[in-house]
Amino acid sequence: MKQVLFVPLLLLLPLLAFSADTKVYIVYFGEHSGEKALHEIEEDHHSYLFSVKKTEEEARASLLYSYKNIFNGFAASLTPEEAAKLSEKEEVVLVIESQPDKYSLQTTRSWEFSGVEETKAWSFVKNKGDNLLLKSKYGKDVIIGILDSGVWPESKSFSDEAMGPIPESWKGICQTGDNFTTKHCNRKIIGARYYLKGYQKFYGTLNRTLDYQSPRDKDGHGSHTASTAAGRVVPKVSALGGFAYGTASGGAPLARLAIYKVCWPIPKKGKEEGNTCTEIDMLAAMDDAVADGVHVISLSIGTQKPVAYDQDALAIGALHAAKKNIVVSCSAGNSGPSPATLSNPAPWVITVGASSLDRSFIAPVILGNGMKVEGQTVTPYKLKRKMYPLVHAAQVLDHSFDPKNSTAMQCLPGSLSPQKARGKIVFCLRGNGTRIGKGLEVKRVGAAGYILGNSPANGAELAVDCHVLPATAVTSEDAIKISKYINSTKNPTAYIVRAVTKLYSKPAPYMAAFTSRGPNVISPDILKPDITAPGLNILAAWTEGNSPTKLESDTRVVKYNILSGTSMSCPHVAGVAALLRAAHPSWSNAAIRSAIMTSAGLLNNEGRLITDASQITLADPFQYGSGHFRPELAADPGLVYDATHKDYLLFLCASGLKVVDPVYKCPKNPPATYNLNYPSLAIPNLNGTKIVKRTVTNVGGSKGVYFVRVNPPIGYSVKVFPPVLVFSHVGQQKSFTITVKANKKKAEKSGDYSFGWYTWTDGFHIVRSPMAVSSA
Ligand SMILES: *[C@@H]1O[C@H](CO)[C@@H](O)[C@H](O)[C@H]1NC(C)=O
Ligand SMILES: *[C@@H]1O[C@H](CO)[C@@H](O)[C@H](O)[C@H]1NC(C)=O
Ligand SMILES: *[C@@H]1O[C@H](CO)[C@@H](O)[C@H](O)[C@H]1NC(C)=O
Ligand SMILES: *[C@@H]1O[C@H](CO)[C@@H](O)[C@H](O)[C@H]1NC(C)=O
Ligand SMILES: *[C@@H]1O[C@H](CO)[C@@H](O)[C@H](O)[C@H]1NC(C)=O
């Protein structure tokens, strides 16, 4: 157990470890040759530290992690001066200052519960039956590493019933700790570890009533993502409130799981406020996961803002994983709807946006004038059958709350008056505070019910919640209707109907308002996100160590829960990557990503183009990348855009960054960054004409003739040459150029992107790539 080593060091030198002027740094040397034994690498790390610290003891005590399995580096407590000295050494590739709140899990700040879906979450995306599942043997023996908040091993989603022996390639361990023994690993959860040093460095010793000091999941998020990627098929699950009854299943139900717990509660914040994951802990987990032999890594973790690669330890870890042909699936982030908010922008990962499912939980509001407004919730509580007085939150404020405050409608804690609100239905707006927390405030003042209205930014996206009193949530448009009604009459009244589950709701999918968006400000030549997958109101396994809302006062315990976020869409793609890895063991990680991207769909279940959360405005590739994933079609993509680790190194050379391998010499003229063989294309600030090169590899039938079709972005002309590609065997590669020219007259105003497509098709396969172009 790693912590046993660490804790005594802290105890020996507490003053040093927490001294005010030291910070946490990652000192990174890049690849290692593998010639040195692990303990020799660690000794090297000590000598580097000794070269800047006064004493040997100080040097030893300052070391937090030695990274030595796959790459060479360490994390240590250093003063800025010591860090600067180390960064001057020739062998040091990078020094990154680690910050406590840089990375977090990518759920929206709301934690919900519901019954189990009646149809698989995947139903409407599996457009051609279960061929991929069969062909991949349900992801049999592919190992998915999950970096998250741990796992609840007792969940039926993690049963190993009838699973074969653990793959021989597996080199990981089952680390024990609080309420977690080796018997909690099985043939499903084949490995589990936890990483605390970075967390404890910033937040002090873990409070073991807030979380388990072990791979066990107190939060719930880690169990949710792990079961989404690779949970077993669990039939006949019913749940609190009885909303639904049916089957839950992960994407690759027979894949194996390796759990790396890297996210921990922030002390003194409510549990519903979420977790923190430090980069030094995550880097240690990545180093282990790659060495342990995972095939896919699911990372529902990101930064709030875009971060450059040489400051993004997660990107560096992912590049080492990519070298070992591991597919790394990452969430795009929940900082939408603002543009340029995307996290995890690197071209060696799959960046996943979030969209809705075709399932809703209808709970309408009946207004006193007879009007019925549609709402959604998974709240199990019911009002008495009568009309209730309806008020704006701003009409029932506590006398201490300034009615002019812009948050007067937001039902923030302590803002409402029990005298004024008792027995009424209170209408609140989204904005600051959690959706669940607003409900708690409405309940605190003795109100009968709660209606949560979207602000315009949330549009028609309804993330459902398991509120603590009768409640429902309404779209921005409906919020205005309700507000108008309240203003129109002296004694407004309302009734909230209890929710029922509705399947095949339309339109679906639409993009979630919260999903982070392009353009990619770190690598403007790489279009991101890559893909969208379900991330709104996703049902999956939950912890029994926490309530479904995570509110302190909530004592309910559930086995399954509904969450929203790009955290939920990322493991969907990790699950599909595992199926593809099993079905096509010879494919590279870039080929797997290409297959998922070029086969994606653009239409919703009404046969129209996918919209944003307004359900009116069309969404674009800065929200969904190549479109909505279609796992069945990804199994047979026809052509793939392949890329190797060396291509990524050349990409970094051309970006002016040399962040990985000190031995690798950048060529004088590396290929331009836009010529990285990526399945999509972004051209920022086009001035005149640009010619981009791509190469496709035939993975369809042995013979194939592909024709190109182009939908140029408005304001540009696009020519692809040659327009026909003839393949005579599997694995054959053909290159082509894409010439993009700004039209003199019609070019968009500078900086505005317009979007288009180019598509190769042999009449059966459709290999589509989005393009985003802006003019100088
Ligand atoms: C964890 O273990 C302790 C001690 O064995 C026990 O009291 C507690 O109930 C366990 N908690 C859970 C959630 O299993
Ligand atoms: C640990 O957390 C619990 C629950 O929030 C709290 O009551 C307790 O005071 C905390 N302990 C320490 C040492 O902070
Ligand atoms: C508005 O209310 C919030 C919540 O009580 C408070 O944090 C904020 O400071 C207030 N703003 C102003 C301008 O008074
Ligand atoms: C949230 O609160 C801050 C500070 O009170 C305020 O500036 C901001 O406008 C609020 N956001 C929303 C969406 O109401
Ligand atoms: C209703 O009245 C309130 C308070 O006067 C105001 O803030 C709100 O904008 C009104 N609603 C509509 C839809 O006009």
Can you offer a commentary on this structure?
α3 (38-52) packs across α4 (56-62), α8 runs parallel beside α14 and α14 crosses α15. The longest helix is centred in the last third of the chain and has 18 residues, at 566-583. 21% of the residues lie in helices and 26% in strands. A hairpin with a 6-residue loop joins β9 (234-238) and β10. By secondary structure, it is an alpha/beta fold. The strands form ten sheets. The protein has a seven-stranded parallel β-sheet, sandwiched between helices. The chain has four domains: 5-97, Peptidase S8 propeptide/proteinase inhibitor I9 (Alpha-Beta Plaits), CATH 3.30.70; 104-349 and 522-547 and 561-634, 3-Layer(aba) Sandwich (Rossmann fold), CATH 3.40.50; 359-503, Glucose Oxidase, domain 1, CATH 3.50.30.30; 680-775, Immunoglobulin-like (Sandwich), CATH 2.60.40. The chain has 18 helices and 38 strands.
Q: If you consult CATH, what is the topology of the largest domain?
A: Rossmann fold
The low-pLDDT segments are 1-18, 108-129
Q: Can you count the beta strands?
A: 38
Estimated radius of gyration: 26 Å
Helical run tally: 18
Task: Compute the average pLDDT.
Answer: 89
CATH top level label of the largest domain: Alpha Beta
What percent of the residues sit in helical stretches (DSSP H or I)?
Answer: 10-25%
Number of domains: 4
Looking at this structure, what is the CATH superfamily of the largest domain? Peptidase S8/S53 domain
Strand content: 25-35%
Shape: globular
Structural class: alpha/beta
Oligomerization: single chain
In what order do the strands lie side by side in the largest sheet? 8-11-7-14-16-17-27
Distance between the termini: 56 Å
Biggest sheet: strands, sense, closure?
7 strands, parallel
- The CATH architecture term of the largest domain is 3-Layer(aba) Sandwich
Name the hetero compounds present.
Answer: 2-acetamido-2-deoxy-beta-D-glucopyranose
Active site: 148, 221, 567
Keywords: Hydrolase, Protease, Serine protease, Signal
GO molecular function: serine-type endopeptidase activity
InterPro entries: PA_domain, Peptidase_S8/S53_dom, Peptidase_S8/S53_dom_sf, Peptidase_S8_Ser-AS, Peptidase_S8_subtilisin-rel, Peptidases_S8_3, S8pro/Inhibitor_I9, S8pro/Inhibitor_I9_sf
